[in-house]
Specification:
alpha/beta, two-stranded antiparallel ribbon, TIM Barrel, about 350 residues, single chain, globular, eight-stranded parallel beta sheet
Length: about 350
């Protein structure tokens, strides 16, 4: 493992004004997205959609530091025969790959899940590295249902252990791991419950990373924010989400980690941007805070595109705008009235 090179990539992934595009939707998830806009989820349509984004010049060259790909997309070629990975590299962005293989029910823990995919991961990572991947992603899913005793110690510990083993294998393969322990915002819990559970998850995850000898300088954390559950009667303000999330992260994340790239987790486009901006306005942070958004970057361009070639310019403009808004938020420079103005 060359830690200096890993650190260089990790730092580039969270460079000021830049964030990560999560374009790693599974076949099932992208089908749901396409169903919503009336587009058939064929291999060609999936490719055309991703190619449209990767050729969005403003967004990719100015605001996107890296792109997380799904296995199918990683090996696909654009209509002109150029590998999609090359399009990403040509834009000055870093290709990445989702390597977990989804979730399965966790034995002995009804209603809880364990992420799988560690078997033969080292062999897969070698192939992805040869194909151009320089970072990877693994997502653990933690739900909250206090009435059912969820999450359990078992679910948190086993998922944290799997995340740490994945991260160690990545670094061995000279690939920067994005460590993503997601506490879901589904449910009726309030922000303080989310804070307490996420703190527990993060502390356990960093303990496991230590035991697996993962070099913190060569990774990026992708957590949820401290936020109210979607069904909670009391929705926290932007300021409360920002203040509590920063406090929580300072309690859990060592300063050796180069950066934290948040998941949007079901927030609306503007909510995800506003929360990120408010955190960066707090300032005096030991790590960079940026975005690793999927739907919050893609919902607008997907709708504008709707599977039609003639809509590509409008879709790229929508993607450029969302990427620019989040770029500003990652520097604490976003303002709500900019949402109605043309992207720079």
């Amino acid at each position: 493992m060359n830690l200096a090179d890993l650190n260089k990539i990790a730092v580039a992934m969270v460079a000021p004004g830049r964030g990560i595009l999560a374009a790693d939707e599974s076949s099932g998830t992208i089908k749901k997205r396409f169903d919503a806009i009336g587009v058939e989820s064929s291999e060609d349509n999936r490719r055309d959609y991703r190619e449209m984004m990767f050729r969005s010049k403003n967004a990719m060259t100015k605001h996107i530091s890296g792109v997380i790909l799904y296995d199918e997309t990683f090996w696909q070629k654009a209509k002109d025969g150029t590998p999609l990975v090359k399009l990403i590299e040509q834009a000055g962005s870093i290709p990445g790959i989702k390597v977990d293989e989804g979730t399965q029910p966790l034995p002995g823990c009804p209603g809880e899940l364990i992420t799988v995919g560690l078997d033969k991961l080292s062999e897969r990572l070698k192939k992805y590295y040869e194909g151009g991947a320089r970072f990877a992603k693994w997502r653990a899913v933690i739900d909250i249902d206090r009435a059912k005793g969820i999450p359990s110690h078992t679910a948190i510990h086993t998922n944290a252990h799997a995340l740490a083993r994945y991260a160690a294998l990545c670094q061995q393969a000279q690939i920067v791991p994005i460590v993503e322990p997601e506490v879901l915002m589904d449910g009726a819990h309030d922000i303080d419950t989310c804070y307490a559970v996420t703190e527990w998850v993060l502390k356990t995850t960093f303990q496991e990373l230590y035991h697996q000898k993962v070099a913190l300088e060569g990774m990026v954390l992708k957590p949820n924010m401290a936020i109210s559950g979607k069904k909670s009667a009391k929705q926290a303000s932007v300021e409360e989400v920002a203040e509590k999330t920063v406090r929580m992260l300072k309690n859990c994340v060592p300063p050796a980690v180069p950066g934290i790239a948040f998941l949007s987790g079901g927030q609306s486009d503007e909510e995800a941007t506003a929360h990120l901006d408010a955190m960066n306005r707090i300032g005096d942070l030991p790590w960079k805070l940026t975005f690793s958004y999927g739907r919050a970057l893609q919902a607008a361009p997907q709708k504008a595109w709707s599977g039609k070639t003639e809509n590509v310019p409008a879709a790229q403009k929508a993607f450029d705008h969302r990427a620019y808004m989040n770029s500003l938020a990652s520097k604490g420079e976003w303002k709500a009235d900019l949402e109605s103005k043309k992207a720079a």
